[in-house]
Predict the structure.
Amino acid sequence: MNRDEYIITICAPRHDDMATQVMGAAAACSFKISEHAQYHDEFTGKFFMRLCVSCDGAAECLPDLRRELGALAESSGLVWSLTDAHSRPRVVIMVSKFGHCLNDLLFRCKSGLLPVQIVAVVSNHDDFRSLVENYDIRFYHFPLPPGAEPHDKRRQESRILEVVGDHQADFVVLARYMQILSPQLCKALEGRAINIHHSFLPSFKGARPYLQAHERGVKLIGATAHIVTSDLDEGPIVEQCVERVDHSMSPESLSAIGRDTECIVLARAVKWFAERRVMLNGNKTIVFR
């Protein structure tokens, strides 16, 4: 932990000997590799890589490493990033009237279980103001009443983007935010917003999905964390989990199991996102767990 550690991520349009070149560039700049994962998608030809590297004199070595990676990018077309492995990304959480995921993320962050800084919480309801402020985190209430006009939604989403910008958030987490985001907001948050939903979608749409599940006698309760896109609940999947249930369980029991599953799945997705383990691959993700 005393050494300067960094994470390198690579997305290249082809495989070739890209891994050798990247690791060679790191070694040439006096960086040692402590963690390495790579994947070659044989269907698209794309190559993905994540390295954790360290160096005793990083202040002097970093400019050289950036130059080496930049030269590789020019010659091969790869896209790269270099970040401090110990930095904690700044996160804005969005929530409505279901607070289980919000409460779980706040506790995990406070306990040091999530490598993020929750810098603000935005909600279209005022229910969780006291909870959030007890953690000394800024709470923003941007209501959108029933029957709101399109310009009301544009104004609300503009205020949301202001919060994200003012707090210099690295990414946004929709922790059961029960409002459909406009295509414009999805575009503004492209690649840096995560959502959580129960895996019954689209089979059980609308209110009270667990009651619908109970009526249909489901045998599995699930949850899915995905990257937000303008296609509702169809963004690239980051993590999923299921729990087996049976006929003896009430709708309330199913709902409780579902809430726990949603919390676990979202926390995993946030952690992997913060650790730069999630990379987009078209409509899918590469997750270097």
Q: What stands out?
A: The chain has a mean pLDDT of 93. The chain has two domains: 4-84, 90-287. Residues 122 and 160 are 7 Å apart (CA to CA). The longest strand covers residues 4-12.
